[in-house]
Design goal:
The complex is a heterodimer of chains A (462) and B (483). With 462 residues, chain A is of the alpha+beta class. Chain A contains nine helices and 22 strands. Chain B has two domains: 225 residues, PmbA/TldD fold, CATH 3.30.2290; 234 residues, no CATH class. Chain B has a six-stranded antiparallel β-sheet. Chain B has a six-stranded mixed β-sheet with strand order 10-9-8-13-22-19, covered by helices on one side. Chain B starts with 5 loop residues before the first helix and ends in a 12-residue tail after the last strand. The chains are: A alpha+beta (462), B alpha+beta (483). Strand 2 of chain A pairs parallel with strand 3 of chain B, so a sheet runs across the interface.
């Protein structure tokens, strides 16, 4: 291994990005815009992958970009650039102003009112420069240790797609013509292992595990990550198909989160105002079982979905989405809120270009009290799902059909691995049929869900 | 060296600069280094509720520097194309190696390359009003199709990617890659029922493609047709059965079932279910599968790959026997096999790896109607959403968005969308009939691997798979295992 130190400090000229963003907004207004909004993003990334003990890739870089959205009355358009030179920014502004002449007048378009704008006060603990504090060789060692722990765990772990360590920081600035200017930084680091196990007949299985945190101190040890990755991989060996059956299924937290994701897609304002979701128009109605309470909270200190303000400069907040099965609130940005005659929930997500979308804060299913083992213990014959394949969910109709693998439950215990099967049903019924919720809620991203049991699904196999 | 020399003209880059950057990249002794310059301009438009609600344009540019030593890769990039920043990136990537500096070969050599997409006016530079007309026409056409069509979203997007790849082995390749596409999605509603449909297409084409060959009305009617059809769809069956795949986009089967598993990196690392199977039977005799990056105007085509290598037409499976893998520079060198020109990357921020281009099965001899007639009870799937594969276990899925029951040799009722699941290394051994009607998709495919998205194409003739698991909800056999 090279005994060299890697530097990750962005060596670029230090420019005040707040000033750049405010200047672009000022110049847009001077150029004839009736409202304008500018976003600047800057980031650094480091990643390394170690495979079979050898460094396979080392990647390191920084980049930044700027985007502007301008309004001409009720017409709007957006442009972006990765070049911050005066000429490039002039060109970006000029094309935005021209483009805004060809879009349609939309009575609901516009940026938020001045009174709505603002940012959460106080330290939200989103940024820790320590994600870059390890010397280069130690970062590589994190990746190597995670992989080694997996390879050493059992002789059936014979190969690997590697161990990895990643770190990144991001800086975001938003300014608009109603006087808002805000910025925040976030950091992230993760360690992962992807081992491959082989059974006696040569069949291979792969799985993974990872730990992710906003600072290095909260990261699980690489050894712990490698061990869990090995366990998850080994339990898949010898997978078989099962006969087509209607049985209760238990979803582990990783896959259960995808079900929660479908609720998010169904209640986000964009799907709702277009009627592109079967949950549109269901405000105040029962859409899920009594035990289901879903919360979106963009304010949690240190959260992966936390920010002081959303993509339009609205302070983030805590929203009860579903309470005991009753749909209490959609998740909205300014545009979709106006379309529906409601108030924004501070869930605007802003990319570089286009109109703002809708994104989650820290979005989760309220946990229960049982352990996942207790959930499984109550099932004579059933399926414990550890992986879904494909994207077979239709939010318009609720139809749901996905590839799956996992473990068969027999007599309340995990009996043997199963694969090459499907799980199908309809989300409308599935939300009501979430019959048990475990207490093992853990955030590994902006969305999180404990282990859940769903009844009534069809498992497709032989 | 003449041609357009985009980066020489726009950034004042010279051959001397390139040699200097490569020398910096090899300053710690790497075996091979390359630079990938990219300048990407793009436009997108979206109409919703018959209004042009979103219009955007943008430019991103940068340079990625790669240094390779054995199986190791160092990578760094910059979005600032100044000499100082590129040198910094080169020295950062160089840290993967640890030895005395190496010298790149002197003098670049540009290989003759094809011209698969010779557009005179790239669509990004075309009049925006013409693009607005396209999305508005799509909206009007979808709404006019049937009064039950209640929601329509039509979008248009295009880009022009100028690239320059130079390598320490003397590689020098430039390309200017246009890409355009339209999409239409509809929601049909009746009392109590809603359904969706979508359609789209494009390629490495100029704007006139959408005014001549494939009009907005063509895509709009197709999206509307699908959503109306789905209003009456019944439950899909569940379990193993005969499946007939229609021609074209259902070729996503090949992409997931065999394509990814044949990418050289997975086989070099022995992590693919196809590792070690070259020369072995992996499909029925009726199956010949190729990956062809050289088809004019196609979404998955490239004159040169993202490592500067001309693309080619590679036979993957010939009459059922596995013939080869899809390779990039790194894997071809480490495996001692030919570089098939499949080294691709999403952008200058990404490390290239073996990827598909246009992957399809050659036409067979069966009449598509005979194929349907041969099925007693099964599913006829003609349109799909996407798919996914676990290349290690070989298990893959793809999700039908338009499918019908086949009963006693006849296509009958439409069924709801369902996921199909199978095992890559043996699904093609169960292909018993191959139609004479090969078709490629309309140009909508985007493939993701390790977080990198690249445009691809797929295609098949009508195919019959004797046994595949269909993930429906219909309880075929209530006497069986139910509780």
């Amino acid at each position: 291994m090279p005994q060299t130190e890697l530097t990750t400090e962005n060596q670029k000229l230090k420019v005040d990005l707040r000033e750049v963003a405010q200047d672009v907004v000022r110049r847009a207004m001077a150029g004839g815009a009736t409202a304008a909004e500018c976003v600047v993003r800057e980031g650094d990334e480091f990643s390394t992958l170690v495979r079979l003990g050898q460094v396979e890739t080392l990647k390191e870089a920084g980049s930044r970009s700027i985007g502007v959205r301008v309004f001409h009355g009720q017409r709007s358009a957006s442009t972006y650039s990765s070049d911050f030179s005066r000429e490039a920014l002039d060109r970006m502004l000029k094309s935005a102003l021209e483009l805004a002449k060809i879009t349609s007048e939309d009575p609901f378009s516009g940026i938020p009112e001045a009174s709505q704008l603002g940012a959460l006060a106080g330290d939200l603990d989103l940024y820790s420069p320590d994600v870059y504090s390890l010397p280069g060789a130690e970062r590589i060692d994190y990746a190597r240790r995670a992989e080694k722990a997996a390879l050493d765990y059992d002789p059936r772990i014979k190969n690997s797609e590697g161990g990895s360590f990643d770190a990144a920081t991001g800086h975001k600035v938003l300014a608009n013509s109603r006087g808002f200017v805000g910025e925040y930084r976030r950091s992230y680091c993760s360690v992962a292992a992807v081992p491959i196990a082989q059974s006696e007949n040569g069949a291979m299985q792969r799985d993974y595990w990872f730990s992710v945190a906003r600072n290095l101190g909260r990261l699980d040890s690489p050894e712990e990550v490698g061990k869990i990755a090995a366990q998850r991989t080994l339990r898949r060996l010898g997978g078989r198909k099962v006969k087509t059956a209607q049985v209760p299924i238990v979803l582990d937290p990783m896959v259960a989160t995808s079900i929660l994701g479908h609720i998010f897609e169904g209640i986000n304002g964009d799907s709702v105002y277009r009627g592109a979701s079967f949950l549109a128009g269901k405000l105040g109605q029962k859409i899920a079982g009594d035990q289901v309470t879903v919360i979106d909270d963009g304010t949690m200190v240190g959260g992966f979905g936390t920010s002081p303000f959303d993509g339009e400069g609205i302070p983030t907040r805590r929203t009860i989405v579903i309470e005991k099965g009753v749909l209490k609130s959609y998740l909205l940005n300014t545009y979709t809120a106006k379309k529906l005659g409601l108030q924004t929930t501070g869930n605007a997500s802003r990319g570089l270009a286009g109109t703002p979308g809708i994104g989650p804060g820290n979005y989760f299913l309220q946990p229960g009290t049982k352990t996942s083992k207790e959930l499984i213990a109550g099932i004579p014959q059933g399926l414990y799902v550890t992986e879904f394949l494909g994207h077979g969910a239709n939010l318009v109709t609720g139809d749901y059909s996905r590839g799956a693998s996992g473990l068969w439950i027999s007599g309340g215990e995990l009996a043997y691995p199963v694969e090459e099967i499907t799980v199908a049903g309809n989300l409308k019924e599935m939300f009501f049929n979430i019959s048990e919720i475990a207490g093992d809620l853990e955030f590994r991203g902006a969305m999180a869900c404990p282990t859940i049991r769903i009844d009534g699904l069809i498992v497709g196999g032989e | 060296m003449d041609k357009n020399r985009f980066f020489f003209q726009h950034y004042g880059l010279t051959e001397h600069d390139l040699e200097r950057y490569l020398a910096a990249a090899l300053s710690a002794g790497g075996e091979y280094a390359d630079l990938y310059f990219e300048y990407l301009s793009s436009t997108s438009l979206m109409v919703d509720e018959s209004m042009v609600k979103s219009a955007s344009q943008g430019i991103s540019a940068g340079c990625g520097v790669r240094v390779v030593v054995g199986e190791r890769t160092g990578y760094a990039y910059t979005d600032d194309l100044s000499t100082e920043r590129i040198l910094h990136a080169a020295r950062t990537a160089a840290l993967i190696a640890s030895g005395p500096s190496k010298t790149p070969v002197v003098g670049f050599q540009e290989k003759p390359a094809r011209s698969l997409y010779p557009v005179t006016l790239p669509s990004v530079d075309a009049e925006i009003t013409a693009k607005v007309e396209l999305v508005m026409r799509a909206d009007a056409s979808a709404r006019a199709y049937d009064p039950r069509i209640k929601e329509v979203r039509a979008s248009y997007s295009d880009e022009l990617r100028n690239i320059l790849v130079v390598g320490s082995d003397g590689t020098f390749a430039e390309d200017s890659q246009p890409l355009a596409r339209m999409n239409v999605s509809c929601i049909a509603k009746t009392e109590g029922t809603s359904a969706r449909g979508s359609s789209g297409g494009g390629g490495r084409v100029a704007l006139d493609f959408f005014f001549g060959e494939k009009t907005p009305e063509y895509f709009a009617k197709e999206a509307a047709r699908q959503s109306i059809l789905q209003l009456d769809a019944r439950e899909a069956p569940a379990g193993e059965m005969e499946v007939v795949l229609g021609p074209g986009w259902p070729g996503v089967l090949l992409h997931e079932a065999v394509g990814h598993g044949l990418e050289a990196d997975f086989n070099r690392k022995q992590t693919s279910a196809f590792a070690g199977l070259i020369g072995k039977r992996v499909a029925s005799e009726k199956c010949t599968v190729v990956d062809n990056g050289t088809m004019p105007w196609r979404r998955g085509s490239l004159n040169v790959d993202d490592e500067g290598q001309p693309t080619q037409n590679t036979v993957l499976i010939e009459k059922g026997i596995l013939k080869g893998y899809l390779s990039d520079k790194l894997s071809s060198r480490l495996m001692g096999m030919a570089d098939t020109g499949n080294g691709r990357r999403e952008s200058y921020e990404h490390i290239p790896m073996p990827r598909m281009t246009n992957t399809y099965m050659l036409a067979g001899e069966d009449d598509p109607e005979d194929i349907i007639r041969s099925v007693k009870h099964g599913v006829y799937a003609v349109n799909f959403g996407g798919g996914q594969v676990d290349i290690t276990s070989g298990k893959f899925v793809f999700s039908a968005s338009e499918a019908y029951l086949i009963e006693d040799g006849h296509v009958t009722a439409p069924i709801k969308g369902a996921t199909l699941i199978g095992n890559g290394p043996d699904v093609l051994t169960r292909v018993s009939m191959v139609g004479n009607d090969l078709k490629l998709d309309e140009g909508v495919g985007t493939c993701g691997k390790d977080g990198q998205a690249v445009p691809v194409g797929v295609g098949i003739p009508t195919l019959k798979v004797d046994r595949l698991t269909v993930g429906g909800t219909a309880k075929k056999d209530p006497g069986g295992f139910m509780q």
